[in-house]
Design brief:
single chain; Glycerol-3-phosphate (1)-acyltransferase; 7-stranded mixed beta sheet
Length: about 250
């Protein structure tokens, strides 16, 4: 019964909150902490979490303060990963694939609250999007990025793409490695079926990027990947034989 309830709540909340943020944007209401945009995003995400019967547990709460003006690098195994992060992170936005921009109402509303859309098939546009995101990070907003590029079938950490680390270096802001566990059980990849459960958010010790330049991106990527893979192995027994660096991206 959870699935139809969640979809109904998501539809209703999008229909209510979407026009609010669109009108706010058209009126020139500024983006900032505790703005109407931030409140609407949190209300939207928390409503969906409640409808799903999901409990969110926070680990490493002391690092949430560091997530202000930071790049949060997260693993990605489910569409449901998004909601706990949107509900708990202070003044955050996401890097999302450009196809989501075409969804009626949702796409325009998402753009209005500051979601950065990325065309992965257009390298020039992608790096332009990262430049825009870097400026938002410098303003104090946290940006959530999924460097694996797409959702995985299980929790083992797959190779990272380089773009998110170019973003972090461009902003000279800390990276907060973030591990999401439990979302796959709530909503597995390849299905829209939703079950109640518990999602754990682990915010790990931030990794500074100050003084790094473009040539250090692979070094930074490996450090973040190893920290996240170590957390998954140590806490949940998740092993991976993958290499931390993807060939492209």
């Amino acid at each position: 019964m959870r699935t139809p309830i969640v979809f109904l709540v998501a539809l209703i909340m999008t229909a209510i909150l979407g026009p609010i943020v669109i009108i706010a944007r058209l009126l020139g209401v500024p983006q900032r902490p505790n703005s109407i945009y931030t409140k609407c995003v949190r209300t939207w995400a928390r409503s969906i979490i409640a409808a799903a019967g999901v409990r969110v547990r926070i680990h490493g709460a002391e690092h949430l303060q560091s997530a202000r003006g930071a790049v949060c690098i997260s693993n990605h195994v489910s569409w449901f990963d998004i909601f706990p992060l949107a509900a708990e992170l202070p003044w955050c936005s996401f890097i999302a694939k450009t196809e989501l921009r075409r969804i009626p109402l949702f796409g325009f509303a998402a753009e209005s609250v500051g979601i950065v859309f990325l065309d992965r098939d257009n390298r020039k546009q992608a790096f332009k999007s990262y430049e825009g995101a870097a400026k938002e990070v410098q303003r104090g907003r946290s940006i959530v990025v999924y460097p694996e590029g797409t959702r995985g079938e299980d929790y083992h950490l797959r190779p990272f793409k380089k773009g998110p680390f170019v973003l972090a270096i461009a902003s000279q802001a800390p990276i907060v490695p973030t591990v999401v566990f439990g979302a796959r059980e709530v909503m597995p990849k390849g299905t829209f079926w939703i079950r109640s459960g518990t999602v754990d958010l682990h915010f790990l010790e931030p990794i500074p990027t100050a003084g790094f330049d473009y040539e250090h991106r692979a070094e930074l990527m490996t450090a973040v990947w190893e920290r996240m893979a170590g957390e998954l192995k140590g806490l949940y027994g998740v092993h991976t034989s993958e290499h931390p660096v993807a060939n492209q991206g």
